[in-house]
Amino acid sequence: MNSIRILVVDDHAPFRRLLSDFLSSHSSVVVVGEAANGIDAIQKADELYPDLILMDIAMPGMSGFDATRAIKAKHPKTRVVVISSHVGEVYRKAAIDNSADGYIEKNSIKSALKAVLERYPENEIRVAV
Fold first, then answer.
1. The 79-84 sheet, strands edge to edge
2. Which end of the chain has fewer CB atoms at under 10 Å, N or C?
3. The pTM is what?
């Protein structure tokens, strides 16, 4: 089975650590790095070439939407899924409009990520949970 290489981007360090630990508990996942803001996310995407980036929206310095557009312009095959505590269709649409491959609400992140990981690599990573 192929491993999926994931970069976790969130400005809240305890959440980032919990998410990385959850992902690392899956045998098909390698968490290649973490970033606390959009600028760092772009740099790490350039260095690490992750298969999937889990990107928060609201971060200091550069928003997740701005970082997503920049990463997708340079690395179109890298999948970026926006993760946010914001609930509602307007945020899902904004994520897709800003080049994201999907949107996951943080309140349902574990079940949504389990579904993504179960389908990888057979299906493209595309989430709108």
1. 29-35, 4-9, 52-56, 79-84, 102-105, 127-128
2. N
3. 0.89
